[in-house]
Design goal:
single chain; mainly beta; 3-stranded antiparallel sheet; 2 helices; 14 strands; globular
Amino acid sequence: MTRFDCLWKVTLGSIALAAAAAPCHASVTSFTDYAAWSPAAGSTSTITFGELPPGTLVTDQYAGLGVTFTDPDPNFCGIVSGASDGFALNGFDLIEVTFAAPILSFGWDHPGWTRARFYLGDVLVFNTGYVGNGTWTFNGIVSTMPFDRVQLNDLPSAGGVHDVFVDNMHFSTIPAPHAAAVLGVGAAMLSRRRRRAM
């Protein structure tokens, strides 16, 4: 494991995540082994892309997991040699995933060299640089600062091809909208009870 640090300060809507006068220190831990990343990542969900027919244009099919694919160029799932189950996502120049709520963990299986950039809104939280080993491999991070968008791109080949592929994509589990609403109602009721008890 390698530790990376970055300074950050952001606001999300009207909720201040960090005071402008005193930026907090966020820590990002990088992993190259899924078995080590998984327990550190906590509760996670996985997309294998084998759930969709080959040739499917991937956009909002995983919205139920809190994930949409939002990059302007197309992403197609298909049969890819070397992928663990034979299926992977081809994002051409870029794969961008946007999460319905901020998360802290992300991991992906990929061939070759891939760079991942993590954002909270428009604020860059972390940039992995190009990671990989030239063959199919796993990379992942766990961050102390939340992020809600990830961009993946590939190191161009000698022929100038930029195609970026992802086999399995792993990320912090995002509560379903109705679960988040229930949690919000519960917190509001608890707050009212506390005020009445005072």
